[in-house]
Design brief:
single chain, 365 residues, Aminopeptidase, 2 domains, 11-stranded mixed β-sheet
Length: 365
């Protein structure tokens, strides 16, 4: 079944390959995934953002793809088994994206032929390793994948989210990081009206000041975000994996052009944190990142930051507010639930870096 609509920003050959790849998937899957593929490709700085891999082994084959995104990141698309006689076969003139072989240390051009009796999982591992190797050769600093999983037991409490248990499966080239939860508020205006007379949860009478990030020297803005990441409960495993500049480049994908949506937060005349909002579609806004310097945490300031965020959204005529959070970050989850954010989706988050990938390749199996 074809990818519909055709993905803008790709060559006819690449579109034909995606149509072949998705022919074994349902039309709904192909159509839904084509939308996020197009969104990532449209904002990618790479001239050829689609990474593809095909691995042959006897009468079986594996194929997969990934996309180079903004912010020195590669996003895993999908991989799967295919009959060898039905393999699309990428152009042999570009060995960086095609292989009939794999080596103990996969590179974009491996050289050891896979034996005919290779297990299906090994074929998939080889295809995924090829994608990761290509991504890092092309300059990515992190490669990540999200796998949809059932939502945890509701309501979300410290008892129902004790340790975010890891999945039972593994991915050879990627590390399991955490379970990410997507929350949505379908009526920000109603929430603010309900909380209009609710007092701040801060332990003091400190006033929070929000100013557009552009009023700070860029190096100071980067330093503020770096401080807000320190000792964070949100995916601490990837702290420092990318530079702050590259992280901001990724955040900028959905930065609105007509208004300020990135804010520096000051408390007691000191820079204390940051709030980064984005607008992925006309009536939807996301809280991309909300963070405070460690010395300003656990003081109730998050309540006022959330109130400011929702007020900003209302002023922009936003009807749907969303965010993603690490399931281990219980203080943040409880704050979001106070503001009528409810969980709608859950994902297992996997990732690797050049260093982690190299360690995986040199670990005996």
């Amino acid at each position: 079944m074809p990818v519909s609509p055709p993905v803008a920003g790709l060559s006819q050959d690449e579109i034909a390959w995606l149509e072949w790849f998705y022919a074994r998937e349902s039309l709904d899957v192909a159509h839904n995934e084509s939308r996020w593929i197009e969104r990532v490709i449209r904002t990618s700085p790479a001239s050829e953002p689609l990474l593809r891999a095909e691995v042959l082994g006897g009468d079986q084959a594996a194929a997969g793809f990934a996309i180079l995104a903004r912010g020195a990141m590669a996003v895993h698309g999908r991989s799967g088994l295919r009959p060898a006689n039905a393999l699309h076969t990428l152009p042999k003139s570009n060995p960086a994206i095609r292989s009939e072989s794999v080596s103990p240390n996969p590179s974009p051009n491996p050289s050891t032929v896979l034996p005919p009796d290779t297990e299906p999982n090994k074929l998939l591992d080889a295809a995924n390793n090829l994608l990761v190797a290509q991504a890092f050769q092309r300059g990515a600093e992190i490669y990540h994948a999200l796998t949809p999983v059932p939502l945890p037991t509701l309501p979300l409490t410290p008892q129902t989210l004790p340790n975010c248990p890891p999945p039972g499966d593994t991915k050879s080239s990627l590390r399991f990081i955490t379970t990410l939860l997507r929350f949505e508020n379908t009526n920000p205006a109603q929430t603010l009206q309900k909380l209009h007379h609710t007092k701040s949860q801060s332990n003091s009478n400190d006033t929070l000041y929000f100013e557009p990030y552009r009023k700070l020297p860029f190096h100071q803005w980067c330093s503020l975000i770096r401080d807000a990441y320190r000792e964070s409960l949100d995916v601490p495993e990837i702290e420092g994996v990318r530079s702050i500049e590259q992280t901001l480049e990724g955040y900028a994908v959905n930065q609105p052009s007509n208004t300020d949506a990135w804010f520096a937060i000051s408390i007691q005349q000191s820079l204390a944190g940051c709030l980064i909002l984005s607008v992925p579609s006309r009536r939807q806004a996301e809280i991309t990142y909300l963070g405070l310097h460690p010395k300003f945490r656990s003081k109730g300031y998050g309540f006022e930051i959330m109130r400011f965020a929702l007020q900003w959204m209302i002023e922009q005529n936003i009807e749907l507010a969303s965010l993603c959070v690490d399931c281990r970050n219980l203080p943040a989850i409880q704050l979001y639930q106070l503001f009528d954010f409810n969980p709608t989706e859950a994902y297992h988050a996997w990732a690797t870096t050049p260093q982690w990938f190299a360690e995986t390749l040199h670990t005996p199996t």
